[in-house]
Specification:
Elements lengths: L4 H9 L21 H4 L4 H10 L19 H4 L9 E3 L6 H11 L3 H21 L7 E4 L5 H7 L3 H12 L8 E3 L10 H11 E3 L17 H7 L1 E9 L3 H12 L4 E10 L6
Parallel strand pairs: 1-6, 2-5, 5-6
Antiparallel strand pairs: 3-4
Helix pairs in contact: 6-8
The chain binds zinc ion (ZN) (2 copies).
One zinc ion binds next to loops.
Length: 270
């Protein structure tokens, strides 16, 4: 096993723990075989995580990436919503625990892992839509300031940053979040209203409404050549992501697609 000095030092200060069961993990080099999973999971939880990725939707009998139970708004915009697994806030299963831990812990390795898990699903969807990942603008919808203050980071940003990195790109801030509640506290109807009154484009009056730092890129370029990819952790009603898609489309973006680590499991036929 090859471990470099920096990694030894890092492990002295940050004891790596399983993202699901919190068991202490032995330090591991990124170059080691199977390091991708071993960096975040104990052996037992990783096996369960791999199995969870193949779990089928109880309603449409598809894996999460192909589940057709998502809101109809997205159905004519993209062939499927790339995602890794199903999430169930009432369950104590390995994937729900892992995603909750990622959301609450500012651990770069957890985000890197989850983004690497999502990237192949996203790549397949982009291929089905004949979109080159190089022509994508990766972005996210920010959390409320109070939610960011609570954990010290924005998990949407961390995920978008890491997903963009898997494609050799940089995530771009596109939206702002004004006052308003976190969606998880609200009912389905309240969520749409809350999204509409709290999420906006970063700089709508600017000649480049997307707020892209690269001054050479103009709004028109975005509309004709680029596809926006909004990355999120968990999709429940889809209200937040729908608001994001609508804002970008109203500003002239031709293609906007969404991708998430997990979809909240559907229980009954709609
Ligand atoms: Zn574990
Ligand atoms: Zn389904």
């Amino acid at each position: 096993m090859k471990i470099n000095f920096f990694e030894i030092l890092k492990n002295l200060f940050f004891v790596p723990k399983c993202i699901s069961c919190n068991e202490r993990l032995s330090p591991i080099s990124k170059d080691e075989t199977g390091a991708h999973g071993k960096i975040c999971f104990c052996e037992d939880c990783f096996k369960k995580w791999e199995k969870a990725k193949g779990a089928l939707c109880p309603v449409c009998s598809n894996v999460s990436a192909l589940c057709s139970c998502h809101p109809s708004f997205f159905k004519d915009k993209q062939p499927n919503i790339p995602s890794v697994c199903f999430y169930n806030p009432e369950s104590n299963n390995v994937q729900t625990r892992a995603i909750l831990k990622m959301k609450r812990t500012n651990n770069a390795q957890y985000f890197e892992f989850m983004a690497e898990e999502l990237a192949p699903f996203l790549e397949k969807t982009l291929a089905r839509m004949a979109i080159d990942p190089k022509d994508c603008v990766f972005t996210w919808i920010p959390r409320t300031n109070s939610a960011i203050a609570e954990t010290g980071f924005d998990q949407g940003r961390e995920l978008a940053k890491n997903v963009a990195l898997s494609f050799g790109a940089t995530a771009q801030p596109t939206f702002v979040r004004q006052k308003g509640k976190e969606q998880k506290q609200l009912s389905k109807k309240e969520r749409s209203k809350n999204a509409e009154t709290s999420i906006f484009l970063k700089n709508p009056k600017h000649k480049n409404p997307f707020g892209c730092k690269d001054k050479r890129v103009k709004a028109e370029d975005f509309a004709s050549n680029k596809a926006f990819v909004i990355v999120d952790d968990v999709m429940t009603t889809g209200a937040t992501l729908q608001r994001g898609v609508e804002l970008l489309q109203n500003a002239g973006a031709e293609t906007v697609i969404v991708a998430c680590i997990a979809k909240t499991e559907t229980k009954t036929k709609k």
